[in-house]
Specification:
This protein is α+β, with helices and mostly antiparallel strands. The chain contains two helices and eight strands. The chain has two domains: about 100 residues, no CATH class; about 80 residues. The termini are far apart. This is RHS repeat-associated core domain-containing protein. It comes from Streptomyces sp. SID7499.
């Protein structure tokens, strides 16, 4: 048997070399195309879901799936497994298959984790940006200190320049939120 990326058996090779191989094709919901006899393992056959039953239903974990209607016969035992308790693959069987009812909760968890990571990284980037700006401002104050020690330069206080350099870094860290604890800035 040769299967597609979705898990459908696309070609069945017989054991007898004199018999032609059987090409299988099914629609998104598991119905055999017109003119084809349903095979035991066709739609999702690579996932070992048998379609050879008297009723035409497919056993998907603990629930029976009806390919004609594209819905399950019973409600989903996992809360939040889909938008509707009877639908299959979050109503998108082209891109998703949900053999055990766990697909959607894992995706929701992954999306929430990605959003939380993005928010944290955004805050860390902002804090680093403010700290760097404060560092650059303090560096410019050190340049002013250098100018202040030359004879012809305007008079500049050493202590004032040093304090402004420290104040620049402190302001940069506070602006980025690195020096806050419990809502009080240091």
């Amino acid at each position: 048997q040769l299967s597609t990326l979705h898990g459908d058996v696309a070609l069945m090779l017989p054991l007898d070399a004199s018999v032609a191989p059987t090409a299988l094709d099914a629609d998104e919901y598991g119905n055999a195309r017109v003119g084809q006899t349903p095979a035991r393992y066709g739609w999702l056959g690579a996932k070992q879901r048998s379609a050879e039953t008297l009723t035409g239903l497919t056993l998907m974990g603990v629930r029976l799936y009806n390919p004609v209607t594209g819905r399950f016969l019973s409600t989903d035992p996992v809360y939040g497994g889909s938008a509707n308790s009877y639908e299959y693959g979050y109503a998108d069987p082209v891109n998703k298959f949900d053999l055990d009812g766990q697909w959607v909760p894992l995706v929701v968890f992954g999306v929430r984790a990605a959003v939380a990571c993005f928010r944290y990284c955004k805050k860390a980037y902002k804090a680093a940006k403010y700290a760097y700006r404060g560092y650059k401002w303090g560096k410019s104050m050190r340049r002013a200190r250098y100018v202040g020690k030359h004879r012809r330069a305007p008079r500049y206080s050493w202590s004032r320049a040093a304090n402004r350099g420290r104040q620049g870094l402190r302001c940069g860290l506070q602006g980025g939120g690195l020096m806050t604890l419990g809502g009080a800035a240091y």
